Amino acid sequence: MITSLSIKNFALIDQLAIDFTNGLSIITGETGAGKSIILGALGLVLGKRADLSSLKNTDEKCVIEAQFNISKYNLLPFFEANDLDYEAETIIRREILPTGKSRAFINDSPVNLQELQALSLFLIDIHSQQQTQELSEEDVQFKIIDAIANNKNDLGAYQEILKEFRSNKSQLASLQKKQSESLKEQEYHTFLLEELWSAKLMDGDQEQLEEDFERLNNVEIIKEAIDKSLAIANEEEIGLLHHLKEIKNTFQRITPFSAKYQELLERINSVIIEFDDICTELNQHSEMVLSDPEKLDYTNQKLQLIYTLQKKHQVKTVSELLGIQNELDQSLVSISNLESEIEKLNELITKNEGELDALAQVIHEKRVQAIPVLTDKIIQILEKLGMPNVRFKIDLKLVPTYFSNGKEELQFLFSANKGGEFGLLKKVASGGEMSRIMLAVKAILAQYSKLPTLIFDEIDTGVSGEIAIRMGEIMKQMSTTMQVFAITHLPQIAAKGDSHFKVAKSIVGEVTNSELKLLTEDERVLEIAQMLSGTVVSESALNHAKALLN
Residue limits of the RecF/RecN/SMC N-terminal domain (predicted)? Predict the structure, then answer.
């Protein structure tokens, strides 16, 4: 429950601080006095967005602070999950700075609006005329039935599996799309892979083939060069080898004269050995250099194949071609893996569907049992609220689709008149009837679930007299188990409150200000009398007000 509210520099309010109690609290005031401002301030505390228009004085910051007793709401897990300090008396503060920046705090810890909005769902339910219209929405109708059916745990389990089911379905669709695209390319990729396989490529092939091609393509030039070199080296009397040996013989005669000459002789001898070895190799190469047109043709064809593959795949080396070959091989393997993954996902989805169907059936059966209870209770309350011939019919139909709350479609059918045809609630119920139906629903839900503080914002629209008294009695009954606020223009409802607050607007100089005041017993009599008769209060109005209060 909300225990206090303080407002500073908001709309028409300079400064306001007020305490609240449990039970039924009434808020009254003339149209335009500022009741909507109080709700607006509460809305900011609950996480609604703000702007500079909220500031009364744009040079100062606006501060709205509300204190809540949350000891009975089992909110410790929420505070732990959001890393917040838990206090039985929790304080929420919103600040709007002159710059337009907004800040929010829970027990002095800064939070974002999402966290604040999540907490607010457990604290206050502001019931406006707009929310009355939401009663005709299927999602809201399911929540009403599920509260009576006690489906909370089953729905939680269903939604967890549904989340997994949808994730698996999404993955399956993605894999199937990938498989479809892969299959389209498979034939072409297989052709490319076989083409590369048939080339029997190895690292270094290209360099060796290019060298072989150059050698085979220039056999005559190579043979001529080697043979000429051998002739120069081995020619008798004028060959290089003969001259080197002559130099060696000449130096042998002078080596005794100096160690340096001996060293030079050894170097000459090394040259002769090395040159002799070169000549031997030249002889070998000369014998090996043979014209081989077939090998030349084979080498040329293999090189042309490599060049063609490089051009096709837009690469420059055999190593890159081998990399592409490996990628193609892996892509074909991955298609096989995709089939395995798709099969596993299909098995998981089938399992999910079985679990969802089982839970959906349990939820459905509980709803079927809850519907007569709900309709009977609504009718009982509405009969007290001046609708003696009201009839409700709730159609629930199982469908194949997995919705977020089960596998059913729902229709709330309504007839206000005896012998009248049933019609969809949103089409046939008037504004006044919708207000009474919503009050009945809230009264019933208060018996089945722990509702947060409930604020009825002029739910009495379209009713008066005895019906208003009955509405007040229902709110009074609800307030025995929860904190209830009623913003009203009807004295019959105002008289049912445990406490009564008045919103009033005053003008001081050129400045308009709104304030919220807790009325004393005498002030309350006068306020209700004014609601009955207007600003000029008659004796009979005062007596009527006292009678209503008693």
Answer: 1-505
